[in-house]
Amino acid sequence: MKKRILVSSLITVIFALIVVTSSFIAVLNVKEIDRTKETLSAYNDMIIRHINLGDEDLTGFTINKSKVRFTIVDKEGNVIKDSENNSLENHSGREEIINAFKNGKATSTRYSKTEAVNVIYFATRIDDNTVLRSSVPISNIKFFNEGYLKYYFIIIFFVVLLSLGLSLKLI
Fold first, then answer.
1. Buried b / exposed e along 84-95 (16+ C-beta atoms within 10 A)
2. How far apart, in Å, are the Cα atoms of 89 and each of 6, 10, 55, 69, 98?
3. Which is the most buried residue in 14, 33, 68, 79, by most CB within 10 A?
4. CB 61 within 8 A of CB 70
5. For 74-110, what is each residue's pLDDT tens digit?
């Protein structure tokens, strides 16, 4: 009977740790995606100011050591300029482009056929005829820093020890 209570307690604690960890990682992922969108928005605003000054250098912007891709699109969806690719198809049907022309700013997270990965996009209307879109692959966003892993294992170790001690006291 003692073994049964001990095993039940340990299984309950381990299950609770898995649920809490999964929830923590999910919240961390959402926060990191939101932070990336804010960074892309700030980059767009900086570039729009520079475009108005006549400087169109779209290089040198990074997120987590990954280059940010910039695309300037006109009202018909034609790509005027792209920082990484010269031959692109029409962008008139892209969600972030349509919404940026309507609302001034728009964001979307979707699969990119050009890059063949899931990408976070942020588009900002420059004027009535042009939109600047920035993007970065989701795979380049660090959701869970490996530096925190050792702390997680230390916490698990102490929680298991504590649950063992409490279970043995109950028996």
1. eeeeeeebeebe
2. 62, 56, 25, 16, 15
3. 68
4. yes
5. 999 998 888 887 767 888 889 999 999 999 999 999 9
